[in-house]
Design a protein that fits this description.
Helix content: 10-25%
Shape: elongated
Radius of gyration: 37 Å
Strand content: 25-35%
Distance between the termini: 144 Å
Number of helices: 12
Amino acid sequence: MSEVLNRFRTQKLLSFTLIVFTLAIGIVIGTLINVNAGVKAAKDQTVAPGATPLVIPNEGEIQNAFTQIAKQVEPTVVNISTTYNPKPTHTLRRRQTTGPDDQDQDGDNDGNGGMDEFLYRFFGNPFGGGGGSPEMPQNHKGYALGSGVVVDRAGYILTNNHVVDKADRIQVKFANDPTEYEAKVIGVDAPTDLAVIRVEGKRDLTPAKIGNSDAVQVGDWAVAIGSPFGFDETMTAGIISAKGRDVDPTMQFQHFLQTDAAINPGNSGGPLLNIRGEVIGINTAIASRSGSNAGVGFALPINTAAEVYNAIIKNGHVTRGGIGVSFVPSDTDKARALLKANGQAQGVFVNSVVPGGPSDKAGIKEGDIIVGINGKPIRDGNQMLDIVANSPVGTALDVGAIRNGNRQSFKVVVGDLAQIFPEQFGSGGKEKGSAEEGGATSFGMQIQNLTDRQRQTLGLNVTGGVQVVSVEPDSFADDLGLKQGDIVVSINQHPVNSTDDLMRYKATLKPGDAVAMKVMTRQGRGGEWTSTYVAGTLPNHQ
């Protein structure tokens, strides 16, 4: 009996063990099945059906033409930072100007036809929405950023005049070099807004390759490199959108390349390049109503820039010829009507002649139509300007003109444009009128005597008076609102018949005295003479 019970216990234990073992195996198998099912479910998930994992390729040089340009010009493009010390504050105002159809000073225009609304030259605070400019009065230290391009391994750099104009300190930074190198101005040319500076303390620079802007065609690739908004070594690409753009009537020597390559404040003075990495222009301005890139940028052609650069490194400045006439812009309805009314299809209608200037001395009069120079037909004002400006001072030009339907010839001796029109093309008042011309400087303006012939030419029906030749910026005369061409006929009720009269009356005045002048000035498109009074208190610095 005992043996039977033992056997029963053994079988029961074996059965229990078998059941436990079977359950354990089942659990393990179930777990494995669930894991496998989960893995399969993960593989079959539908969050991104058909998506393929990204694979990073091995490092390798993938290069195109733009990459090559970036590497080629990197050492040649520089960042220019300028510092402006505090300047005395003056009240600024916009003066009344002639309309956009009335061009003067060998073609210069007194008004800009609203161009200021959207034409921006690049400088000011690169991060601060507008910023200040060196031309604007400041009562605290100011800073500005621009760009430039190395054109000579000796350290000479091309940039815009407005980048460095009136700067008290100029510093240059090169790519991959944290040092800020001091630079000095070698020379500037305001009519083209170009400047040449030289960096000090860095040797064996890499100059940029110079291209030929005359060979540029609309549709060619264009690459701009500079420091927009202070971001160094920024490169953008586009095409040449147009050539020969005259966007600012007051800058008659600027005929721009237009591009849609993105350029912004800080790009100013930097290079515009072709697809070979050659400099074809110097970035200067944009057309924008916001002040930032809108796809219309302008670069001064490098052929023009090279001429200016060569003159500056040789003489320190650019000398241009002038013949002392103003004319109606040839691409206006007014000019076409004037030519047609005089039986001419082309030519330059003389709007006025500078008294005592080269054309006046040669006998050219207001209303003449210039149709030829040295036997070459003249189509328009720009062609005439190019010929005259590039003629050496002292050269005698055979100028053909139509007067009352008859062609006449005049021998005109080319003068220095800066001396004929010192306010627009002079060098900050360094060049004064000669004594034999009756020139004198008073109240911050240059004046000259008038002859009876000059009065007749000007259509001036008053006796006495002296003519304002130029006005120095921020001077007492400037504060009064006097401008070139005005006729001062009295001062504090004393008649002014000569420059000596005005100088003598001025000598009796002291700081704080009131000064009232009667002035004859031309108003409106017709240029009628009207009299007005200007007055102010003589400041301490006069």
